[in-house]
Amino acid sequence: MSIVNYLVPLQLGMKAKRINIQELGVNIDYTVFAPEGKLEEIHALLHVTDHESDFETQYRQLLQAQQQFIEQIGGATIMMKRYFVSDATNQMPLMCDLAEHVSVIQQPPLDGTKVAAWLYLHRGESNYQQVWQMNQIVPEGDSYHQSRTLLERYEEELKQHYDANIAEHCVRTWFFVRDVDTQYKGLVVARRENFAEQGLTNKTHYLASTGIHGIPADTNAIVQMDTYMVKGFEPDQQKYLYARTHLNPTYEYGVTFERGVKITYGDRTHLLISGTASINNKGEVVHVGNIRKQAQRMWENVEALLNEGGASFDDVMQIIVYLRDTADYTIVEQLFAKKFPNTPYVITYAPVCRPQWLIEMECIAVTNSKDERFKDY
């Protein structure tokens, strides 16, 4: 394994690194948050550099690179993994590492490869029970029926197996919607109804979330749901982010998710930023048709959310970027490479839930801010 570049620390306890496993043709950008003597968190984005090989070859290269990477960093446990693939229906049956915590979604990497991967790893044991449940689908009915059933099944799963529930313990969701331009409404209505039945309203709170185009492997599935649940934290540990100077509450235009969530632990703070686009505090799309200006406004909105939570872009450990028009990739890649030279990111083809939005991003940040009233992470 050859090291291409070590990047300077981004903040106390956090470092970003880039390695190139030349014999496998895989680049790995990763960040490490490692408070002294505490659990270490690692986010890694794995990218194939061989654009000409078939999916099986690229996938095998990623798996081998993952193994070498974990050995190189001295061992770690994969808590969650997401594959971004170019043809989920044909490619998912070829994959050998599928598990509850592994997500596969057709959102092709726009660097010209067939697969990329995001890994989230721990080195050490957490004081909190964490459950990532991926690839949840209901392969019958319309988008409304599938979304309702997914949420009902998830609530029952949490109750039976974890003595938990969505309202108190689920902190992040992803809804991937086949043909989001026509099928998103069914999800919106079903989620709003289900949340209201569980006591999640604009008077209480919703969940951090991304609702975006993505194609499940099962051709009958319109909606795929991925979720992240944490059990063991106190209600005061979780705060929601609004950035009302830049953004409006989502319920004002009929959807039910939070712009972001901040969870404070005894040794760090997590900020999970929902899918965020070029929108103003009246709920209007800003800079219609201009990819550069939409990217800039999107960054302003994300930065406002981070700042409200006591963080900045220097604290961001990973970024997922969603593009509507593949022709915008070159411009967007240049913009992100310049603004985030030290942060792992992946750019995928995934139209946003409003046709006028050309770009959306989500991210996860970790800071040294802590509250000793609470257990360490």
List the keywords:
377 residues; alpha+beta; 60s Ribosomal Protein L30, Chain: A; 3 domains; 7-stranded mixed beta sheet; 6-stranded mixed beta sheet; 7 helices; globular; disordered N terminus
Your description of this structure?
The structure is a single chain. The chain has 377 residues and is α+β, with helices and mostly antiparallel strands. The chain folds into 3 domains: 1-125, 60s Ribosomal Protein L30, Chain: A; 127-232, RutC-like (60s Ribosomal Protein L30, Chain: A); 237-377, RutC-like (60s Ribosomal Protein L30, Chain: A), CATH 3.30.1330. Helix content is 25%, strand content 33%. It has 7 helices and 17 strands. It has a 7-stranded mixed beta sheet with strand order 1-2-3-4-7-5-6. A 6-stranded mixed beta sheet has the order 12-13-14-17-15-16, with helices on one face. The chain has a 4-stranded mixed beta sheet with strand order 8-11-9-10. A hairpin with a 4-residue loop joins strand 2 and strand 3 (26-33). Helix 3 (143-162) packs across helix 5 (180-197). The radius of gyration is 19 Å and the shape is globular. The relative contact order is 0.14. Mean pLDDT is 95; it is low at 1-8.
CATH class of the largest domain: Alpha Beta
The average pLDDT is 95
Main β-sheet, spatial strand arrangement: 1-2-3-4-7-5-6
Oligomer: single chain
> What does the radius of gyration come to?
19 Å
Shape-level CATH architecture of the largest domain: 2-Layer Sandwich
Briefly note the CATH topology name of the largest domain: 60s Ribosomal Protein L30, Chain: A
Largest sheet features: 7 strands, mixed
Shape: globular
Count of DSSP H/I helices? 7
Count all strands and give the number.
Answer: 17
Please give the domain count. Answer: 3
CATH superfamily of the largest domain: RutC-like
